[in-house]
Structures are given as C-alpha cells and as structure tokens.
Amino acid sequence: MQIFVIIALMVLGFSVSVDAFNKKERQSTITFPLDPITFQSAPGSQIATSYCLICHSAEYVYMQPPHPRERWEEIVLKMKQVFGCPIPESDIPALSTYLVSQNKIQPRVELKKVKAEPALEAVQESPSSSGNASSGKRVFGTYCVNCHGQLGKGDGPIGQSLVPPAANLTLLGKKSDNEILDAIRKGRPGTAMPSWKNDLSTQDILDVLAYIRTLAL
Ligand code: HEC
Ligand code: HEC
C-alpha cells in the first residue's frame, strides 16, 4: 500500500520534463528541470543519494516535517531493519546529521539549460544501438544494482525481498527495445520498480538499455 504512495509521488513528480521529452521539436536547447529535486549538497548528502533514492524521491524526504536527530536516526534504522535499505550502520550518524541540517530547507527545482536530448523518435529504429553499453554499466551500477544485482539477475541486496521481486534482466531477449524502454521510463506502478524518466537523461536510459542487452543469456 505505502509503496503505492511513494511511487505515485515519484510519478507525479515533474511532468514538465516529460512533456519536453515527448516533444518532437528540433531545438538546440530546452529548459526543464533536469532532476526534480536532489539532496542538497552538504556533508552527508552523498549517503542520502546512495541509499535513500533507491526507494524514495528526495522530494519525499523533504516533505517530511522537521525531526530532531533521534527521530531521524530512528527512521533511518527502520528503513534499514524493516525495509532492507542497504545503508551500513556506520553511515547512520553522518546521515542523521545531514537530515537534521536539511530540516528547514525547501529545495527549489533548479531550471537548467541543457543540450537537447536526442528525441526518442529519432532513435526508434534501434534504440539499444544508440546507447553506449559501458556508460550504461555505470548508470546500472549506481541506480539499478541494489535491486537487479550486478549481472542483472534480480539478485541485488534487496532484489529478492521485494514483492514482486526485482526482474531478472537476463531473460529479456524476446522483449523489444521499446518495451524495455517503457518499463525503465515509466516504472511499474504497484511494484518497487521506479520510474526513471525524471531522474535519468534520455542518453542515460539508452545507455542502460544497451547495457541490459549485453546481459541477455
Ligand atoms: C528499500 C526501500 C527503502 C529505502 C532504501 C528507504 N526507504 Fe524510507 N520508506 C520505505 C517505505 C516502504 C516507507 C513507508 C513506511 C510506512 O509508511 O510505514 C518509507 C517511509 C519513509 C519515511 C516516512 C516516515 C516513516 O517512518 O515511515 C521517511 C522519512 C523515510 N522513509 C526516509 C528514508 C530515508 C532518509 C532513507 C535513506 C536512508 C530511506 N527512507 C530509504 C522504504 C525505503
Ligand atoms: C527498488 C528496486 C528497483 C530498482 C532500483 C530498479 N528496479 Fe527495475 N524492477 C524492479 C522490480 C521489482 C521489477 C519487476 C516489476 C514487475 O514484476 O512488474 C523491475 C522490472 C524492471 C524491468 C522490466 C523487466 C520485464 O520483465 O519487463 C526493467 C527493464 C527494469 N526493471 C530495469 C531497471 C533499470 C534499468 C533500473 C535502473 C535504472 C532499475 N530497473 C532499477 C525493481 C527495481
């Protein structure tokens, strides 16, 4: 049930970037929120980025009321013990200090001028060959590995404890590039599979697709 709420929040996110993404216009630059809300840079923010974005958006964390340090420690411990967040015990004090430092911060969506991404339409013929598998491996190692496992077998640290479990990506041989892209961009509502369209660039998504293709058995 709660996972629905989280996913709904992630999906609600920022449809602006999706619209930009869907437009076929050939512009050389477009302005849109690249990454809706990120953990604001401060000591400890890396820990939050590594371990909290696995299941939540940063926005979800910033929406919480201000908590004293003990309460944040309690919450993080609950994430670890109850939900299987893979954060090491030794990182919890530094993360709690960071979370306290973010109590009163209301992060703004940063509007960035970015180079126009290749429109998906332009690469529709063969999206996986438009991606770079070795860059995709890095994307995978940062964002996907905790659930899908190093070799994509669905056996990451939390992959098998999810209901349904993380998919075995070595078995996607029969799925088309577009089916896989769809799963990555939109996620799978009602499961732990997040939507990545707001958090990864088109190129990152194409790269990770190219990497997934190399995992097929
Ligand atoms: C493995 C998935 C997972 C990870 C990783 C995770 N959470 Fe959660 N989190 C959940 C779920 C599921 C809930 C909903 C719990 C509920 O409503 O009882 C939740 C709820 C919360 C809440 C709401 C308050 C509460 O006690 O329920 C906060 C705040 C929170 N998480 C912060 C974090 C932070 C900070 C991190 C990074 C250390 C994190 N979460 C990592 C799954 C996760
Ligand atoms: C929090 C855990 C989690 C993370 C992180 C995650 N996934 Fe998933 N993923 C899942 C789950 C669970 C499923 C199975 C959903 C279902 O049963 O419909 C899934 C399904 C998929 C599928 C669909 C497979 C099929 O059978 O059609 C693809 C593709 C996929 N994930 C790719 C990725 C990529 C790429 C990333 C990183 C950018 C990623 N996932 C990150 C949990 C996760």
TrEMBL record:
Pfam families the UniProt entry points to: Cytochrome_CBB3
Keyword Heme: yes
Highest taxon in the source lineage: Bacteria
Domain Cytochrome c: 131-216
Alphabetized UniProt keyword annotations: Heme, Iron, Metal-binding
Matching PROSITE patterns: CYTC
Entry annotated with the keyword Iron: yes
Name of the featured protein: C-type cytochrome
